[in-house]
Design brief:
Radius of gyration: 14 Å
Strand content: 5-15%
Protein name: DUF1318 domain-containing protein
Keywords: Signal
Signal peptide: 1-28
Largest sheet: 4 strands, mixed
Pfam family, one: DUF1318
Shape: globular
Organism: Terricaulis silvestris
Distance between the termini: 18 Å
Strand order of the largest sheet: 2-1-3-4
Number of helices: 5
Length: 134
């Protein structure tokens, strides 16, 4: 447990750079993903990947875009994990912490650590995963 916390803390130090590059880098040139986020069809998940909001109508094109985005994220997490002697899941979690702490806009949906989909509102802030450190 202590090793995991130490690795997560170390990963969090570099996650700042990844957090501002990974999700945005992976969808930077994809206005369809941005539009789907704004429409509540997809959202960030506590595992560091994009997911599909239940009940949303998801086209085959959007499904493919999300899958490709998540493949690019996993590749980046894998690269960073190798460089930092951490696991891919630890890197993804560190990035998820950064995203949940400041990059989910009002109106966007997200999947919390417990697996429930929520919507950020002005009066309902994002539920930051319990594994995130300040």
């Amino acid at each position: 447990m202590t090793r995991s916390l130490a690795l997560l803390s170390a990963a969090a130090l570099i996650a700042g750079a990844i957090a501002f590059t990974a999700p945005s880098w992976a969808q930077a040139n994809d206005s369809a993903l941005s539009a789907a986020r704004a429409a509540g069809q997809i959202g960030e998940q506590a595992d560091g990947y994009l997911g599909f909001v239940p009940g949303a109508t998801i086209s085959a094109d959007l499904r493919g875009r999300v899958e490709q985005n998540n493949i690019r994220r996993r590749a980046l997490y894998t690269q960073r994990a190798t460089q930092r002697s951490a696991s891919v899941n630890e890197m993804a979690a560190a990035v998820a912490c950064e995203v949940f702490q400041g990059r989910i806009a009002v109106g966007e949906r997200y999947r919390n650590e417990g697996g429930q989909w929520r919507q950020r509102t002005a009066s309902n802030p994002v539920e930051v995963p319990g594994f995130c450190t300040d």
